[in-house]
Amino acid sequence: MNRYDKAFKEEAVRLSDEIGSKKAAEQLGVAYYTLQEWRKRRTLHGDGAHIGSGRAYASADKTAREIELEREIGELRRANEILKDALGFFVKDRKR
Question: Which Pfam families match (predicted)?
């Protein structure tokens, strides 16, 4: 079974809005019914839809702000890892 991340699902649904579900599914190599399920989830869950990779949907107890902050924390952690990698690269280069 293929697993897709949140960004892929969101872009796939946007593309299906623009060119239609069948064409989008063909272009992306995704089953038509899978894309339709993603569209249905977007309708039901709004911004909480398309969590990706088999993770559970956010609980109803979380506010939209909490979800947004968790997303931002994830982005900042990824950016921090990139900066750490870049720092290591430049330190190695400087030692030469």
Answer: HTH_Tnp_1
